[in-house]
Structures are given as structure tokens and as C-alpha cells.
Amino acid sequence: MNIKRSIVLRVRIAFILVFLFAGLIFYRIAHLQFVEGEKWQAKSESLNFQFRQVSATRGNIYAGDGSLLSTSLPFYRVVIDPAVAKEEVFSKGIDSLAYLLSSFYKDKSADSYKRAIKDARADGKRYLILNRKQVGYQDMQAMSKWPIFRNGRNSGGIIFEKVEKRYRPFNDLANRTVGYINEDKYGAGIEYSFNEYLEGKNGKALFQRIAGGSWKPVFDAEDIKPDDGFDILTTLDVNIQDVAESALLRQLTNKDAEFGSVIVMEVATGKIKAIANLQKNGGGRGYGENYNYAIGDQGLTEPGSTFKLLSMLALLEEGKINLDEAIDTGNGTFRFYDRVMRDAKNGGYGVISIREAFEKSSNVAISKLVEENFGHQPKKFVSYIQKVGLDQPIGFQLKGEGAPYFKTPGEKYWYGTTLPWMSIGYESKLTPMHTLMLYNAVANGGKMVKPMIVQAIARGNQVEKSFETEVLRKSIASEKTIKQLQGLLQGVVDNGTAKNIHNSDYKIAGKTGTAQKLIDGRYTQRYYTSFAGYFPADNPKYSAIVIIDSPKGFNAYGGDVSAPVFKEIADKIYAQDLQINVKSQPKFQYADSNTDEFPFIQAGKFDELQMLCNKFGISNHYNNDGGESWVKSTVSNKSIQWKANKVESPTVPDVSGLSLRDALYVLENKGLRVVYEGKGRVKNQSMSAGSTVHQNTVIKLVLG
Questions:
Q1: What's the Cα-to-Cα distance from 90 to each of 84, 93, 112, 150, 216, rounded to whole Å?
Q2: What is the DSSP-derived secondary structure letter of residue 643?
Q3: Disulfide-capable partner of 534 in 121, 274, 443, 612 (CB 3.0 to 4.6 Å)?
Q4: Helix (H) or strand (E) holding 559
Q5: Any idea what the Cα angle at residue 702 is, between residues 697 and 704, rounded to 5°?
Q6: What per-residue confidence (pLDDT) applies to 594?
Q7: For residue 629, which of 669, 598, 575 has the smallest C-alpha distance?
Q8: Can the keyword tRNA processing be found in this entry's annotation (predicted)?
């Protein structure tokens, strides 16, 4: 009996405990539901609904003429919410939709797409990525008309998730200058330096967390729309940039050089028209633009003989030399303490004038002159470097500018040989941009302007910030000295180390440079070659510098390696720029405007001109074997002979003689952008007839 009572007691205790535990569960459920319900509901929403960042559209980067250098193109990830469409719409359209998806992506069969969508619908999935491949805007527009998709987001479940990608219409043109920026907001060039303007201000939107950890956007009144980025208008000229890169690449390849750099700048304004940097790729894969040697730390190097311009400036400003007085360079060697200065020419130049010494780039002559006049007070020579501003960073608009290096008299590493070697471009470091700034100042009559590559920041037609030409120094030297320096630089091309680039069409002024490279503390037989100058010398509009590092082969000097690149660039700019090219293009024989027999007819559309001539009883003839509808006129035997004008060929057409209306029609149909000045018919065009057409390139017309 006691055993039975004991068992019953234990059962009762167990029952009571189970009952209490069950009651506690019901109590907890009720408490969570009615007391803590709002708290946990909010917690659930915070986990499954979040305001997430919506990226702003990045601004565009434009060349100076409005050509697009970099933009963001929209691409779309195609996603569907399978549960949204009504059963009737879904059943009617699923077969056709699956077939279209299979035909478009060509990665799975129509049955596979159909099965995936139906399974997701059956499982209650609200987010299904149909394919990882992103589609463009045109494809997105076409897809939005497909079965089920055509019902839209709310009735068809289609979601086109926008993903933006950076696109460059000119591919690798000005690659490093335009630059890039990565996910960590680190990069180079304009993209990096002006990122705070380009990136815009991101917005926020409500997203719902769904199965698989994905987030689906949900429309909400509290969404904050993003503010798109500002556009950057640069000073670059697409045509000049293309010319600079092509000429540089050709010479680098010919000389098997390590790297090269070119800068082209507008003299009066300091606007950079082109920056090209090309370096050998590994594995024999040609050349690529991987670093901006024109302005960066890695571009800092001993400038060589281009620095002799500063030495001459200091000597002339002191008034201690006459350019026509003689100097003895001996056999081309001269000892300064324990080091021997040498000229490039074996046997030296003997006794020559100071002017000739500069033109022939005599190291012995320049270093002797500087040592004789500044050896007892080297700080005065260095003060001219400081006066010109070559010892300080420029404050260029792109980040990563290298800081110049010059020794100071009295410091630990200033030796007795420092001054003579510094005078010819050694024992100091400059970027190509610094050297060009000096030469540009001489071309600009002594006025030193700050180089600039961005002229405005804007959104649409609203300019947020503009950059004007900044004058760093009103004059780097006296007017007399500047004129003497200009004469010296022109003499280098006319008579000296760069006479191989002399031409009769226009004048070039500049200076060659060849510096031995310092490797592991020793000067080697590898050279850093350069040419800095400006053109046309009598009325300078452009200045430029060309750097080619470690060229191979014989005659690895600045005059033989870098100067020809300068001339090629200058020739092509001169041919394109109507403001400096005073020679008109070849004239065609038009009908004589001074006779009583014929009106002044130049060029146009054949059917229109023929109708006019026939109406006035003017004899005219056209042997139209090629079927061209555009013509030019010549006079023969008291009648007009029409000559075919092949404006419909795939190259730049000859529009001289056409009216502005006809010229606009012809050129804009080629994808060219037209600017013009004057009135009347076309007299000159900036792009030569027969040259290659690049879309959105600007062509300038002069009417008269």
C-alpha cells in the first residue's frame, strides 16, 4: 500500500510540474504577444527591413571641347518576384517568357528557366535572380515588353536592378590622366582627385531581407533620392592627346625605351592640352599608361641640359656676361676639384661664343660661367631657382605631385662640385611639369602661369566652380633677359643640337636635354633624354616637353630621340589649329567672281546648283561616273565643269566652298561636332580632308 501511495504521489508531482511548465509557456506566449509584442515587432522589422544606401550617379568627365572622356552607363540585373503575378497572367505567359529568356541569355533551355520560376513561385520565394549577366538599357527596354514582365513591377514582379559601370568612349586615351577610383576610394588622376564632386551624394531607400540573404527594394515615402555627381570639364584636347600618345608610342617602340612622357600646354592660359605617359609592360606586352611620370614622384629626376635655361637666366640677370663674348671650352674637359666635367663632343668645341655654347649645349662652358660668377656666393644662384619657383610644388590640380629637390649651400651634402654640376641639371630633381612651367614662362614673355587641367565643375548648365588662369609670377626676369632667352632657344633649333627639327613653315624654340642616369649611386651609360620648347617661336601658343627614358641604340641624345617627337606633335597641331596656321589650305579653281559671264559658284549639291545654272542659262556639265551628289566647280570653255566632291566617303570630307548649312549637314552626319567663325562660305577647316573620323571630335570652320 505504501508503494502504491508513493507511486501516485510521484505521478501527481510530475503532473503538477508539467502543468506548471505548460502554464509558464502559455504565459510567456501571452506576454510576448500582448506585452512585448511591439518591441519584438520592431526588432523583426529592424532585421528584415532596413534603409540601405542608394548610390548616386557619378558625374561625367569632359574634354575641353565637350568630348566625353568618362561617364557612367547604366546596366541592369534582371530579377523577378515570382509570387506577384496573378495565376491567369502567370500561366498564360510563363512558356513564352521562358523561351525568350533562353533565347536571350543562351545559357539554359526554356524548360530550365520555366522550372526555376515555377519552383520559386511554389516555394513562395519573393526574389529570384534570373541571370547574373547584366543587360544594357536597350535590352532592358525590350525585356520590359515580354510576357509577365510587361505587367510591371507591381503586377508582373519584374525588377531591373540598376548597376552603373564607368565607360570611356575613347578607350585608353589619356588613361592615367582621367584615372580611376576603387571601392576603397583610392585611385589616381581626375577620377580620384575630384572624387568629392564626381561621386555625388548617396540616397537611402527601404529594402526587405528575403530568403538567401538578398535584399529587395520596397517603395517607401521616406526614401531619400540620391544627388548625382557633378561633371568635370577638363582642358584636354582629344585631338592633341591622340597625336601626343601616338608620336610618343612610336618613338618608344623604335628606341625600345623604358618609359616616356609628353605634356602640351597653352602658353597664355596654362591649360594642359595633353598629358601622355607610357611605360613598358611586363612580358613584352608593349607599352601602357600605368603611372603619371609628368607630375608624380617617380617622374622626379635630374633634368639634364634643359636646366641650362635657368643657369643662363641667372647669368643674364646678373649682367655679367655678353652672349657674343668668347669662352674657351678647351678639349671638352674641365676639372672642378676632384671631378671632371665633359662635353658630349669628343675633343670639345674650342673657343666659341656663349651663344654658341648654349646652342651646342656645352657642359664645360655653362658650368665654368656659373662657377666663375656664383662660385663665391652659391646662395645667389640658388635664389634664382627660388625666385622662379622651381624649388616648390606647383599645387597642381591632380593629387600625387612630386616635390622638387635642390641642395642648399652650407648643408651637409653641398660640395665644391655641387654648383657646376647643378648648373647643367645634375644633383637636383624636377618633374617634367616643373621644367615645362619654366619654358612656358619664357614663351609667355616672362609671365609664369600655373598649369591647370580642370577648368570647371558643373551640373548640367549650372557651374558649381570655375578655375581661371592663375599668375604665379608676373615676370621671372627682366624683359631684356626674356628676349635674350627666347633668342637662345630659337638658336638651338636653327643652329644647335635640335637643328634636325628646324622647318620653314613655322619656328620652333626649345632646348635638348640628355642626362646620365644615376643607378645605385653611380652614373651609367643609360640616358634620360628630353626636349622642352614652344611654337610658333615668333608668337607662341603652345609649349611642350617630351621625355624618353633609357632609349637604346646609337645617338641616344635629346636632339635625336625626344626632339623629333616634339616636332611631330607640333606639326600636327600646327596643321589643325587655324589660329596659328596662317597658310590657307590648297585653293580650288572656282568660277571667276569678277567676270560678267559667270556667278560666283564654289561648291554644293549638284542638283541644286544645276537647277540654278539652268535657270540662268549657264552652260554646265557633269560626268558623274561615281554617282556623287556633291560637287565643286571649275571653269572651262565658257562653261562650268562640275567636279565630284566625295563627301560621303568614311573619312573627313572637304567642305571648303560649301555654305555653312551644307557644311553642317555633311559634317554632323559624320558624327563630328562643328564650331565656326565668320560669315559666308567655308574657307578653311581645322581637320584635313581624308583624315580619320573620330566620333564627337570638334572640327572648326572659318567662313569668309
A1: 9, 5, 16, 12, 21
A2: E
A3: 443
A4: helix 558-561
A5: 155
A6: 44
A7: 669
A8: no
Q: Which of 570, 499, 674 is nearest to 267 (CA)?
A: 570
pTM of the model: 0.72
Return the residue matching grid coordinates 636635354. Answer: 513
Which residue carries 559601370 as its cell? 165
CA angle 7, 10, 12 (to 5 degrees): 110
Q: Are 562 and 549 in contact (CB under 8 A)?
A: no
**Cα maximum dimension of the chain:** 150
Q: How long a stretch of residues is the chain?
A: 704
Query: What CA–CA distance (Å, rounded) separates 645 from 588?
Result: 12
Residue whose cell numbers read 661664343:
353
Cell numbers representing residue 236 in the block? 584636354
Q: Are 439 and 508 in contact (CB under 8 A)?
A: no
CA atoms of 543 and 268, how far apart (whole Å): 10
Decide: 598 and 640 in contact? Cβ < 8 Å: yes
> Nine-digit cell at 627?
554617282
Strand pairing report for 639-644 and 620-622: parallel
Look at the block and give the residue holding cell 622651381.
Answer: 390
Joined together, the cell numbers standing for residue 660 give: 555653312
Q: Which three cell numbers stand for residue 512?
A: 635638348
- The string of pLDDT tens digits covering residues 266-295 is 999 999 999 999 999 887 788 999 899 999
Task: Output b/e per residue, 266-303; b: 16+ Cβ within 10 A.
Answer: bbebbbbbbbbbbbbeeeeeebebebbbbbbeebbbbb
Q: What was the pLDDT predicted at 208?
A: 62
Amino acid identity, residue 662?
D
Residue 525: HSE in the Cβ half-sphere, 13 Å Cα cutoff: 4
Q: Is 514 helix (H, G, I), strand (E, B) or coil?
A: strand
Look at residue 302 in the predicted model and tell me its pLDDT: 93
With a cut of 50, which residues of the chain have pLDDT below it?
45, 212-213, 221, 584-597
Q: Where are the beta strands (DSSP E) in 49-168?
A: 49-54, 61-62, 68-80, 128-129, 158-167
